[in-house]
Amino acid sequence: MKKILGYIFLIAGGLFFLGQLLALLSEYHNDRLIDYDYHINLIFGFINLAFVIIGLFLIKKSKSKTDFHPDNVFFDNSIELNFQLEFIEYFKGLIISLPLLKFIFILLPIIGFINLLSHWLSGEIVIENVGLFESLKEKIIFILLIFFPVLLFWVFKRQFNSNEQLRESIKYTFSNDLVKIEASNSNSTLGINDFYKIKITDKLIILFWSKYVINVIPKRVFESNESYLQFIKKIN
């Protein structure tokens, strides 16, 4: 996920910088550089630079091996894990498995905020009783970009709370080269080596049945950090 976020920040910084450059060239072409607000654009220049630096930092941090395709995994002793998935774990699993959600929840608010900030600094948004409402009404699209992820987060949480299958107790049994997944209304058995891939984050183990179909196992369900590390060693 860090790598994806890094590229998002890097691309965003590059696009905003390109926009600034095109605006400067437009002012130069129309002989209006005397009216060009260098202070505002200097601020946005630093913001663009910060985006690029953050992006490069995240890409560098992501180089550690966090996902892999299982090969010749075998459990000498069976391991049983029983738990109920929490919403934040379900949500993080969605974010990791669906790259489009990363764009929606991270880049859209950034684009909306920066555009509102640029219009405010340039005087297009007037902070007055009447002028503020009229100014913001014209920039409604940028406001929606900021608050759309909040609405989507609420929809996901409502879906999780209303779906008993997502909140029910589930049991994973890892034995030999198989994993058995048992819930109240469904049971399935799959070869561990047949998984599309396994991804490990700081707090989650994500089993990919396919590119977008996943099961999430929280790190908290292990009895100790030692048992967690032994499990990771087995599947890695």
Short recap of the structure:
Helices cover 56% and strands 19% of the residues. The chain has eight helices and eight strands; from the N terminus they run ααββαααααββββββα. The strands form two sheets. A four-stranded antiparallel sheet has the order 1-6-7-8, covered by helices on one side. Strands 2-3-4-5 form a four-stranded antiparallel sheet, with no helix packed on it.
Task: Kindly list the characteristics that best describe this protein.
236 residues, alpha+beta, PH-domain like, four-stranded antiparallel sheet, elongated
Topology:
Blueprint: H1 2-29, H2 38-61, E1 67-68, E2 75-84, H3 87-97, H4 99-121, H5 131-138, H6 140-162, H7 164-167, E3 169-176, E4 178-182, E5 187-191, E6 197-200, E7 204-208, E8 214-218, H8 225-235
Antiparallel strand pairs: 1-6, 2-3, 3-4, 4-5, 6-7, 7-8
Helix pairs in contact: 1-2, 1-4, 3-4, 4-6
Describe, in plain words, how this protein is organized in 3D.
Among the domains are: 1-64; 67-85 and 167-235, Roll (PH-domain like), CATH 2.30.29. It is elongated. The protein has helices spanning 2-29, 38-61, 87-97, 99-121, 131-138, 140-162, 164-167, 225-235, and strands at 67-68, 75-84, 169-176, 178-182, 187-191, 197-200, 204-208, 214-218. The chain has eight helices and eight strands, in the order ααββαααααββββββα. Strand 7 and strand 8 form a beta hairpin. The model has no long low-confidence stretch (mean pLDDT 77). The protein is of the alpha+beta class. Helix 1 runs antiparallel to helix 2 and helix 3 packs across helix 4.
Strand order of the main beta sheet, please?
Answer: 1-6-7-8
Structural class by helix and strand composition: alpha+beta
Cα radius of gyration in angstroms = 24 Å
How many DSSP H or I helices? 8
Flag low-confidence runs: none
CATH-defined architecture of the domain at 67-85 and 167-235:
Roll
Portion of residues in helices? 55-70%
- What proportion of the residues form beta strands (DSSP E)? 15-25%
Largest sheet: 4 strands, antiparallel
Instruction: Provide the CATH topology of the domain at 67-85 and 167-235.
Output: PH-domain like
Distance between the termini: 19 Å
